[in-house]
Amino acid sequence: MKKILLYISISFIYAINFNDDIAPIIYNNCTECHRPNEIGSFLPFQSYTDVYNNRGLIAYAISYDDRHGEPLMPPWPPDREYSTLLNERYLTDEEIQLVLDWITEDAPEGDGPEYPMPPFPEGSTLGQPDLQFEMEESYFISGNYEDDYRCFVFSLDNAQELEISAIEFRPGNREAVHHAIITYIPNGEADNLDNQDPSYGYECYGGFGLPVATDLIGGYAPGLTSIQYPADIGRTIPANSDIIVQVHYAPLPNDAEDLSSINIFFKDIPIEREVNQEILSYWQFALLPDQETTITRELYVPNDVSLVNILPHCHLLGKSWEIFATTSQNEIIPIIKINNWDFDWQSFYYPEYLLKIPGGSTITATCVYDNTDTNPNNPNDPPQIVFPGDGTNDEMFFVPFRYIPYEDGDENIYLGDTGDINGD
Fold first, then answer.
1. What does the DSSP 8-state code read for residue 118?
2. Residue 19 carries which DSSP code?
């Protein structure tokens, strides 16, 4: 608090301006999303004029409030005091106060040179993909306010195995696309389903509709950010495979169209450590009206593993999540805690460094659901009994974990851009 007060006093001596003080904060923390073709494209922050014209909204979004406990923007649902995760989005107290002081002082642009905006990649958050697939035609979404699950098939035409470092789904219509999941199957395995449906793609509510086993290799949800796996870690796609993406189009009041795409990035070095996936889910519950319900499930970890990422997932009644591991020595390893669940902001979350979960540990996941009329997101008025399901108005308890078998030194492998703790 003393630092903030000192900073405030200094700010009134020095004339705060956009070019010198505010542009670096906005461009480095907000513009990545608030620009064309990204999730915040409806409110771009790419110039002084953009920011000045929306300064009132910015002041509201970055201020602390009693309801959320944290500023609304930048959106980062996990509790930063519980665990440290990769690419945490937040403004420091000093940055928040600086922006608020600037707005109070009539938001001057400044006389100095314009601060350069970082060179954001177009059509991807990761750069130039090695392969890109776009839907063959726009898919029509009926404005009947019902869920629409649609599967689209893309042939890789790969005579050899593909080693990938990342796969990125790019929604064409961010209002319509709620989430997407991606898998691979043997070439032609879904042709019959695809050919039987007269519209582009095929209906696939609740799954991919296939008898073959599917392994999720990617996905999308609002707020999800993709990273490329470091070092010799990655995923492989067998030769002669097709990719299927299941897109969940959320209920809409008006007709719409979507033309989404997928970006695939190859590994520069051979993959020696394949990423595996385990899903902790529960489908046998009922959420009674006018009350909160707490559900806890556990997953036993028989061997040492290194956690790569995790995705807590529920729907509109979700209130909070807490996930941690308890070792055989009763030591607690905090993984993630979300105090105020937001259906519109969810992601695969990565520890900064590979997180060792010793063999013999138990992972505990707890979700609290709020099925009362005080929940502003409750789809039912008055509240009704809610069961598990894939529809937006149903509920889910679904937690995918991605991991690799543990090796000595994994704790030093950084999951960000530099590859490891030494930046090699």
1. P
2. I
